[in-house]
Amino acid sequence: MLEEAKSINLSLSALGKCINALAENSAHVPIRDSKLTRLLRDSFEGTARTSLIVTIVPPPRHRGETASTILFGQRAMKVENMLRIKEEFDYKSLARRHEIQLDKLIAENERQQKAFDDEVERINLEAQNRVFEVERNFTDALEKERLKYQMEYMESVKKLEEKMIVNQRKHQHDGFMKDKCNGEVLCIKNHILFHVKFIR
Hints:
Elements (H helix, E strand, L loop, with lengths): L1 H22 L11 H5 L1 H5 L17 H15 L13 H109 L1
GO molecular function: ATP binding; microtubule binding; microtubule motor activity
InterPro entries: Kinesin-like_fam, Kinesin_motor_dom, Kinesin_motor_dom_sf, P-loop_NTPase
Protein name: Kinesin motor domain-containing protein
């Protein structure tokens, strides 16, 4: 009898803790502390309609228990649970929900993969365009440099040719003047010889 009374008191104490936690909107409700609170789990979670009746006795000698019971009832009146519809656990519906979620995840993954591939392709194309632009600019610069050196070379060749023509003309003129001088010297020499012979 004593052990049974102890168990009842422990269960009522655990019930009081649960009521206090619910009244204070605590994040943790100690439902597992006793068999009584485990049986009332649906009531605490809002998936069952529950009525609580508090009884007291009028004799003065029980006023301590009466006051404690009234306080317990006042705390219980502060409990406000949101009613929730309890769903029956259905493996088929759970599997369907998981399949739908999996399909959504696969579709999202494919979308992100396509976006990633498109971004990689865009970056590669942009890099190729930049390389092509650099190569084209480098080729244009080389062509301009080649044309510059070619023009300078042709200009140098032209100057050399003009100098050669001038030298050739000067050489021809010098040869002509030499021949002319030689002719005049020969003529004078013949004239002198003629006069020498005539004097003799």
